[in-house]
Specification:
Elements (H helix, E strand, L loop, with lengths): L16 H11 L12 E5 L6 E8 L8 E8 L3 H4 L2 H13 L6 E5 L2 E5 L3 E3 L8 H15 L11 H15 L2 H6 L5 H12 L6 E4 L8 E4 L5 E3 L6 E4 H11 L20 H12 L11 H32 L6 H20 L3
Antiparallel strand pairs: 1-2, 2-3, 3-5, 4-5, 6-8, 7-10, 8-9
Helix pairs in contact: 4-9, 5-7, 5-10, 8-10, 9-10, 10-11
Amino acid sequence: MNQHPMESVSECLRLPADAESALHALALNWEDVIDAKKMEVTSLTGAAVTNHIFQCTWQTRDEEKPRKVLVRIYGEAANSYFDREYEIRVFECISKLGQGPRLLGYFHSGRIEEFLNAKTLSAPDLRNPEISAKIAAKLWEFHQLDIPGPRQPMLWMRLREWVKTALALCPKNVAAEFQLDCMEEDINFLEKMLWRDDQKVGFCHNDLQYGNVMMNDEDQTLTLIDYDCSTYNPVAYDIANHFCEMAGDYHSDTPHILDFNKYPDFEKRHKFVKEYLKPSRKAGEVMSEKEVEQILKDIEKYTVASHIHWALWGIIAGRVNTIEFDYMEYARQRFQQYNLLKHSILSVQ
């Protein structure tokens, strides 16, 4: 899985002890591996701002076919906003359904994944019309997954939990800057304004940035990866979040800086929704423009929920994570967009 550009291999690079034990046990199952304890560890860098990602390689008797796996070490903030036991169950279920890399093992501080012969998309790829159409179709497919767990939208509960976590972690000046004391009131208002019983709910990725989309090197098919945030939610929210992610470039010199001028215009949003709905249509069935327009309206409103979601994430991560990323500045930008858009989009006086 060429998920991120690779740094140079460091022979002194060590993984946590529980990771090394799990990897050794895995390699012992492969008869072609020359020495299960002798592995090459490469740090992979790029769009991962929650976890630490590594490639582990063993030499085999066939020198041209080494064994490779991807190792994900959870970031320090993992337990602050994600349920890792739930994520492992989701990952395993999605793997069995053929929608992602196989789960090869897990340990207390992370997991081992199949190494895909694919590359991660880049920020400009999200704005490529052909790739965007493929993402739309793949996202519709992902939303149909039958994953065990609560089927009601989890967005609102997560936001309320994250407000409490942020308040518990932040000093008073930070809480005041982000108006955290009145944030739960805002979330209650958002739920009332955004949620309708007739909205389609599906199993959503909830973090569809370019680094979480892999393209196969041979047939150009897509695979969605990283299910830290995945839950059932309104599908319009998932699409809105994807559109918001077009503002980011996590491989730039300033990965925390967002450019919301890159948010797709109406024509691009309209085309994405039509491509998204295509797989749901029977042969010859005409797509309802009214349905497309309603989803587009819902998507635009859910952008404010995306902004507050990732603002809260940034605030929490900024207090507990040591990955090199300016989480607080990222949170400020998302919070500014939230304040900028909520009145106009929700028609609040």
